[in-house]
Write a structure and sequence with these properties.
Blueprint lengths: L4 E8 L4 E5 L6 E6 L2 E15 H8 L7 E8 L3 E6 L2 E7 L7 E4 L14 H26 L14 E4 L5 E4 L2
Antiparallel strand pairs: 1-2, 1-8, 3-4, 4-5, 5-6, 6-7, 9-10
Length: 171
């Protein structure tokens, strides 16, 4: 299934070329420009790094096992936050927000689209109901009710299994 998507387009100084990445949409926050949903004036990108990677990239000693990194972009400025501490604030080197954001199914006047999951919820609920009924039927057929005849007491009832082994137990 497809959903909303985001691409980040940046300049890679090592290869001297354009680099396109696909950050996790769940870590992207978008601020719209007034009544025009297609106009984005600020984007925040939050992601997590392992301690070793964060130490190598930013020279920090994270408190936990992972480091939270937040990039805040406007057309004019760029800010980098590592574990709630601002590491860098400078003029945006690109002069534009380097994110391409597009929704799955456009909802008017909203940045993000309509989820595919809403259309699948009712069929999946019906499938769950059918599987639950089938599971109950199989459970009952696999565990038949035992009927005892001519039993006067319910202590130490002995029975035979299909293999002919005798077992006893209290009720």
């Amino acid at each position: 299934m497809l959903g909303d998507a985001v691409y980040k387009v940046i300049w890679d100084t090592e290869t001297a070329g354009v680099r396109v990445t696909a950050p996790d949409v769940q870590g992207i926050y978008v601020w719209q420009g007034g009544d025009d949903a297609s106009r984005v004036w600020r984007v925040a990108s939050r992601y997590y790094l392992d301690v070793d990677v964060a130490a190598a990239m930013y020279g920090t000693k994270p408190k936990g096992k992972t480091t939270t990194v937040v990039e805040l972009w406007t057309a004019e400025e760029f800010e980098l936050w590592v574990d709630d501490a601002r590491m860098e604030k400078k003029t945006n080197p690109y002069g534009f927000i380097p994110f391409v954001i597009f929704p799955n199914l456009r909802d008017p006047k909203k940045v993000w689209g309509i989820s595919d999951l809403t259309q699948m919820m009712e069929p999946l609920r019906e499938f769950n109901r059918a599987m639950s009924q089938l599971s109950r039927i199989l459970e009952l057929s696999g565990n038949p009710v035992a009927v005892l005849e001519n039993v006067e007491e319910s202590e130490d009832i002995a029975g035979q299994t299909r293999r002919g082994l005798e077992h006893s137990g209290g009720c």
